[in-house]
From TrEMBL:
The protein, known as: Triosephosphate isomerase
PANTHER family per the UniProt record, alphabetical: TRIOSEPHOSPHATE ISOMERASE
Entry-linked InterPro entries: Aldolase_TIM (IPR013785), TIM_sf (IPR035990), Triosephosphate_isomerase (IPR000652)
Top class in the EC scheme: isomerase
SUPFAM superfamilies: Triosephosphate isomerase (TIM)
Enzyme Commission numbers on file: 5.3.1.1
Region of interest (Disordered), ranges: 264-283
Record key words, sorted: Cytoplasm, Gluconeogenesis, Glycolysis, Isomerase
Pfam family, one: TIM
Catalytic activity: D-glyceraldehyde 3-phosphate = dihydroxyacetone phosphate
Pathway assigned to this chain's UniProt record: Carbohydrate biosynthesis; gluconeogenesis; Carbohydrate degradation; glycolysis; D-glyceraldehyde 3-phosphate from glycerone phosphate: step 1/1
Protein family per UniProt: Belongs to the triosephosphate isomerase family.
Length: 283
């Protein structure tokens, strides 16, 4: 059955002890969540750097993947203040958020820097959570073109390996409502098609972030592979509600793809039957 991915980035909202408490409460809930336990729903949590080790302790024995909110573009060496991919993977980090709009806007990260960070992460077996999105509101078609160009630039020269593409239109981050469903679906489908065309990105997924909340995943259907949550997930009950929705989403997508496969098989069978000698000729 197709998996649905749900991610949470805590940014810098929580204090240290608040983050530890949140992770403990989430761990308690996911241990008994059937879709998480079965693997139908994949969940990752990205605390601040100081929260990484406590989060790894809190989620030990659960399927939750722990991530970092950034990663150095450099290998280990004289880079004061940097945290390398090599150190992150040694500690147990599995994913790293790269290229978030705030990093690009506040810290001047360019596509070249993002590509270098993606390269460093993949080189060490850390899956990038690659944040991509158009800066201003565009049509769905124009946004698709812009984000695909960004995708290629942000993976330029990066080693083979799957990525989690988090489509986050900048104009929807922190907004009262997410981007319109039709817009998200248009861009997300285009991004998935672009990933599918890259032979070295097998296993990649496209999730949506940007004021994401309950009900959105159901509306989007198989246009996306999951959601990337922010402040909405600070309330653990809200997060669990999305996990429940993600379980239903995985089952629904599985049924839809099974039906599509069966329809394609029937169509192929009809085509083969029609091409058999004597078919369609007069008796």
């Amino acid at each position: 059955m197709p998996k649905t991915t749900v991610g949470v980035s805590l940014k810098a909202y929580f204090g240290h002890h608040q983050a530890i408490d949140w992770c403990a409460r989430v761990a308690e809930r996911v241990r008994t969540h059937p879709a998480v336990a079965s693997g139908d729903v994949v969940i990752f949590v990205i605390p601040s750097y100081l929260g990484v080790l406590p989060a790894l302790d809190a989620f030990a024995g659960t399927p939750v993947l722990v991530g970092a909110q950034d990663v150095s573009q450099f290998e280990p060496g004289a880079y004061t203040g940097e945290v390398t991919a090599a150190e992150l993977v040694e500690a147990g980090v599995r994913v790293a958020e790269i290229g978030h709009a705030e990093r690009r806007r506040l810290f001047g990260e360019t596509d070249d820097v993002v590509a270098a960070k993606s390269t460093a992460a993949l080189r060490h077996g850390v899956t990038p959570v690659l944040c991509i999105g158009e800066a201003s509101r565009l049509s769905g078609a124009d946004a698709a073109t812009a984000t695909i160009a960004q995708l290629h630039a942000d993976l330029a020269g990066a080693p083979a390996g799957p990525v989690i593409v988090a489509y986050e239109p900048v104009w929807a981050i922190g907004a009262p409502e997410p981007a319109p469903v039709e817009h998200i679906a248009t861009v997300a489908r285009a991004l998935r098609a672009a990933l599918d065309a890259l032979p070295d990105r097998a296993g990649s997924v496209v999730i949506y972030g940007g004021s994401a909340g309950p009900g959105l995943l159901t509306e989007l259907g198989d246009a996306v592979d999951g959601l990337f949550l922010g402040r909405f997930a600070h309330d653990v009950d809200n997060l669990v509600a999305v996990l429940d929705e993600a379980a239903a989403h995985a089952a629904s997508v599985s049924l839809q793809r099974t039906a599509e496969t069966a329809g394609a098989t029937r169509a192929l069978g009809s085509q083969v039957e029609a091409q058999r000698p004597g078919r369609g000729a007069s008796a």
